[in-house]
Structure formats: structure tokens, C-alpha cells
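Hi Q.,

Before the meeting this afternoon, I wanted you to have the EPZ prediction in hand. No need to reply - just skim if you have a minute. The sequence and ligand are here:
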Amino acid sequence: MDSILVTGNGPLHGRIPIAGAKNACLTLMPATLLSEEPLTLTNAPRLSDIKTMTALLQSLGAEVSALQDGQVLAMSSHDLTSHTAEYEIVRKMRASNLVLGPLLARFGQAVVSLPGGCAIGARPMDLHVEGLEALGAEIELKDGYLHAKAPNGLKGAVHEMRFASVGATENIVMAATLAKGATVLKNAAREPEIVDLVECLRKMGAQIQGEGSSTIEIQGVDRLHGATHQVVTDRIELGTYMLAPAICGGEVELLGGRMGLVGSFVEKLTAAGVDVEETEAGLKVSRRNGRVRSVDVVTEPFPGFPTDLQAQMMALMCTADGVSVLEERIFENRFMHAPELMRMGAQIEVHGGTATVTGVERLKGAPVMATDLRASVSLILAGLAAEGETVVSRVYHLDRGYEHVVRKLEGVGAKIERIKG
Ligand code: EPZ
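Predicted structure with the ligand bound:
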């Protein structure tokens, strides 16, 4: 297994291009199942999760061609040979469950493995099932698989979700595009990836309004046609790299970044003493002198502070002047980066869903282990600012969500290299 060697090397300067959003692409790809005509995605990120989703769609009989070095995905699901998402693939990537809604809507049947456990939490699918059953689907759990059918098609309904689940919103909205009649989805998730999905579905002929708000209304249509859609910028990659000049000092411009994607995150960075400026090309982030100030963080559904940036923000708070309290309200086990940061000299106390961080002047490089996607990049950020060398192992986690990390950080002056293992 590869590892990444990072050596603290002072302030960073330059520009980092931000790729298309992994979490938008992972819901846009299954949307191809809703139409027999081709769907083409541009600005697709080159990540292992995208390869996994590609393999899943191909296992169903869909055609997926990765063109232009993977930045364009040309897809067609004219003739499917299977409606089953196998455990082998789903257990590797939970987002595989996003084929459930589209398969049900277009073919009236789907068999999707429950994802099973994940490092950051149990991540059940009850909210997905409740929403699809509200549209008339019959779903039963057998041998670890959800067996779903809608022999007479799906029927629009008014449904309020108990929690604003991102994935459940995506599955229900995609299914409702082909249901008979109108659907009103209440307490819907408001993430930019949902907005991007709806914009793509609308290009395919879907009739939807309210995306980005808590209530999304969908008027079912008989069929959807093909489209070409550009994947929205990845707000989590954007926020991650904004923390590099914050933790190291210097000034870095994140190309493609927009304030609207990272609103509440920018509020916290500004409160910590980091300057963020929106430019023609993106977001310019700088920290002149002196340590950042500690700030408290509570993770919430969008537009609140994103849970996917909690681990990275903790790395910054480990070097802040003062004490910060980070509360993780979305997942039940998302502090696995804390013990690894403590190996670098961080002072962190974890009690249940709350981590209290007392900032130290400087972290010390050490061998550490990535435990999940966002934890892995949190350790790299810590290593960029630490004294000496940090070796982050198990970087296959990193490859799921960040393309060309070494190249992007080297480009702004970081001392970082990938070691083949
Ligand atoms: C999406 O996961 C993202 N993944 C996650 O990003 C992100 O952390 C999460 O949304 C929250 O923003 C993709 O978009 C592919 P949820 P999702 O359904 O849809 C519970 C990353 O690092 N829940 O909003 O699975 C669940 O257990 C990944 O890129 C139920 O209880 O998130 C969790 O505690 C990690 N029942 C909470 O809701 C359900 O049926 C939020 O889950 C569904 C979810």
C-alpha cells in the first residue's frame, strides 16, 4: 500500500485547480439509468470512486466510456442486462445505493445490497426506503439485499423525511421524475450536489422546482431524454485546499472556487483570522502572520458547516491559539483522525460526538494512518505545518476523493511525495 511523505516546509504560494464534485458525480452517473438516451458528464473528477460507480453501471449492462483522460463520461443505459447492485461493489462504496431510485422508476424493479458497515457510522437506508415506499414501491429486505418493485409504476406523493438525508433526497427525487403525478418532498437536503443533480435532470426533461430549499416539487413525466451536463465544482476539495494556506501561512488561489459553495465554512475561517477573497478565477485564501484563533464548529446539513470538512478543520484547530470545540452531529463515529493527530502532538479530548482541541504552537511530524477519506487529508494538512517528516499510510482512502493531491500541493510549494508501497 502506498504512503505519502510530507515535510513541514513553511508558507504556501500559488494556485490550485479544483476538480468536479465527487459527490455530485456519484449521483449524476446513476441518472443515466432514467433514460434510454445517452447522458454525458463533463468536468468529471478522476477518482477511484468514479471507477467503482462505472463498474457498477457496467455490471447492470449500461455503457460508460471515460473520455479525455476521464474528465468526460459518456453513458448509455439503452439495454440493461441486470437490475441487481451486488454486495461486492456496494460494500466498497455506499453511493452505489443511488441506483435504487432510477432502476425502480424506469424498470419497476431493483435489487440493491445494503452497504453494510462503514468506518464513520452504521449509515442505514431507512430514509431511502420510506421515501420510495411513499411513491408506491414495495421493498423487502432479504439476504442483506433490498428487493424493490413497483409493478404498476411509481405514483407521486407528499412525503416528509425525518432527517434531511442527502442520498435519500437524491434517490427519491430521481425516482419521482418518472412517477405518475406530482411529488412534494419535504425536509429535503439542500446541498449544492442536489441542486446540480436537479439541473441535470431538468436538462433531461424532468419537471422539478425548489432545489436548494427544504421542499422540492416534482411533476412526473413519461420519459426523460439524453443530455450533456458539467459537474459542479467540488466544495469539499475546495474547502480542504483552502485550509492549506490557513495552516501553513502564505497565499493560495483556489481556481473554480465560489463563496456560495462554502458559505458557513468561510465564516469559520474568517473568524479564525484567515482572509478569504472571491476573485474572477476563484477564491484567494491567505494568512499573513501569527497563529489562527480557535473557533467552535458544529456540523450540520447544508448550509451549515459540512461534516466532510470537520476532520480537516480539526487539523487547523490543533495549531490554533486557544481551545476549540468541534461537535459532529451527522455521523456517530467521525473522530478517528483524532488519535492520529495526537501522535503528532495535538491535544484533543473526545467525548462521544464532541472533540475539545487545545491548540499547540507546532505539531511534530510522525508516522500516522489514514482511516477514512477525509481523515486522510486532515493528516496531510497537519503534516504540511508540522516540524519534520510525516508519513501517512493507507492512502488508498485518499484516492477515493482527491485527484493528484501530491501534484496540487507541490505546485504551491509543499514538500510532499508519494511512496510506492
Ligand atoms: C452523503 O452521504 C455524502 N456522500 C457524504 O460524503 C456526506 O458526508 C453526507 O452526504 C452528509 O453530507 C455522497 O454524496 C456520495 P446522508 P449520505 O444520507 O447520502 C443517516 C464523503 O466523505 N441516515 O445525508 O450517505 C446516516 O447514517 C462522504 O465524501 C439514516 O439514518 O449521507 C448519517 O448519520 C462521507 N438513514 C446521516 O443520516 C438513511 O436512510 C447523514 O446521511 C440515510 C442516512
